[in-house]
Amino acid sequence: MIRRNICFIILLLSLISAVPVYAQPDKKTNAYYITNYGAIGDGITDNALAIQKTINACNKAGGGKVIIPAGHTYMAGPFNLLSNIEFVIEVNAKLLANPKESVYNKSAFRDNKGEGTIWMGGENLQNVTIAGGGVIDGNGISFMGAELEDSYELKPFKIVDPRPHLLTIVGGKNIRIRDLTIRNSAYWTVHLVGCDDVAIDNLTLLNSLKVRNSDGIDLDHSKNVRISNCYIESGDDCICLKNRREYEEFGPCENITVNNCTMTSRSCAIKIGSENMDRISNVLINNCVITKSNRGIGIQNRDEGTVTDVIFSNIVIDSHLFSDVWWGKAEPIYVTSYRRANGNNKDAGWRFPKGKTEGSAGMVSNIYFSNIKCKSENGIYVGGESADKISGIFFDQVDVLINKTTAIPGGVYDRRPSKVDGLLTGSTSAFYLDKANHITIRNSSVTWGSNRPAYFKHVLESREVADLKIFNLEGQSAFPDQMEAIKKL
């Protein structure tokens, strides 16, 4: 009898030990560790299933923390976040994207399959935090073609571009992203679509400056967003506000603040557009540094949507010329509204309104620049396809220093993508205004560096500008004995 009881106890203990450890989270911290759900931190095992099991269990229990534990690299293919979780990548932990293109199949833009896929993210999420002090690595170079001098070649594809966007959240509410290093994205890094009440704080976001389309943070039809204390390096735009046509049901992009950020970009550090089929408004960008960038601040409106009530203040801009691969020609400030070039049938419904292969350009109005210090190889450019597209642009305490610092040819303003000629060649003036209304410049200055090519010209050059007001604009032309400071046509 005793032997039989002992055998029964041994059998019972063996059955208990066979129950998965992950059935019980850490009760004190309500933490769900991915290692308890089968994750292996060897950097080569795909842990997407284990991570998804952990997220599902945490969500089913009502919420808690999903932990990527310290000390290891956890490689994973695509997985979905769910509501009411804090997704924690601990200090000295790395979450690494699977480099196999075949595991990525969900389009980042619904029926438009030609602009990347999704690695991690979710739809209709509420109360999600992504934090922890660790590293999220998109493994971006794995998805590139040959390395060129100024960029990586893009691999050809037939229907689906497999390059994964690193994080995509659609229809999120109460989203927090903080205290992380996010790096090496193959496409857009943080793409927030139709999200409301978002705080992004203390991110170090490091993408290769050679990877095209590697935007840092894209706010798409999102509202009530605060971005602060971030350091961003991106081959493409660092921070971009837009309204993509694929997600038009989410309405305007509005009520956005950006504070205390440092940015470097081969395209545009802070951009509004080019996709904008709705309204972008109520935007405040303050206390930022833009360094070693192609274009500094850009409003690049190329669709029927409008841009209004935007303030840029207390910003230092350092911009330089780079190759034609990148949009921009070192314009420190750039405000434009041109319709994009006509497309083809595959563009109808996403690049253009449904059933159409051409579009229109909306109005840009009430844009304020205050206390901006610019060092650049080019001047400020303001232009519209007609004067009524640009109205109410105010420059106050905007100081511009122009000097030739690279061997790349200048004397060009970049209007791509647009139906008008993409590259406008000719002269470089500190303020170049082309077809606009109600422009005010006050308490500003222009200086020229010692390296002045012949195409450096005027303090201000304007064409078809109505109601141009200038109060205390200091400076001379690049060659005072040859040309006037202000030229109006």
Automatic annotation (TrEMBL):
Q: Which Pfam families match?
A: Glyco_hydro_28
One GO molecular-function entry: polygalacturonase activity
Query: Which InterPro entries has this protein been placed in?
Result: GH28_Enzymes, Glyco_hydro_28, PbH1, Pectin_lyas_fold, Pectin_lyase_fold/virulence
Key words of the record: Glycosidase, Hydrolase, Signal
What is this protein identified as?
Pectate lyase superfamily protein domain-containing protein
Kindly state a single biological-process term from the GO annotations of this entry.
carbohydrate metabolic process
Q: Which species does the entry assign this protein to?
A: Mucilaginibacter polytrichastri
Q: Which residues form the signal peptide?
A: 1-23
Please report which protein family the annotation says this sequence is part of. Answer: Belongs to the glycosyl hydrolase 28 family.
Q: Which domain of life is it from?
A: Bacteria
